[in-house]
Design a protein that fits this description.
This protein has 112 residues and is mainly alpha-helical. It has one domain (10-110). Helices cover 75% and strands 0% of the residues. The chain is built from five helices and no strands. The protein has helices spanning 10-18, 27-51, 54-76, 80-89, 94-110. α2 packs antiparallel against α3 (54-76) and α3 (54-76) packs antiparallel against α5 (94-110). The longest helix has 25 residues, at 27-51.
Length: 112
Amino acid sequence: MPAAFSGQPLQRRCNAIATRPAHDLTLTARQAHGGQFFQAAAAYFNGLAGEAPPQAATELKIIAAAYSSLADGAVNAASASQLEQQMSSITTQGKSGQAVLGLVTYLTTHCH
């Protein structure tokens, strides 16, 4: 598990993010901390890929690459809305969106 996630159950981490004051969600704050978070997410998916069967590993590596790319973009985003749009597109558009769909299909077909 990546350092950004270790030591905190996911629900507690999500609650902490949801209750942050609005001023903490500015573009500057996202640029300062977003890159680290997305690199940690990329490392997590790459770690899963190392343990997964080949078909699922391919999909996980594509998702990891998308998060890594987003980490680089988080520092350079022109606006908070641009960063939010990039975040939501990972699971719904392009190569990473197809990888998410492929991974879900794999899991529902092979994991019982």
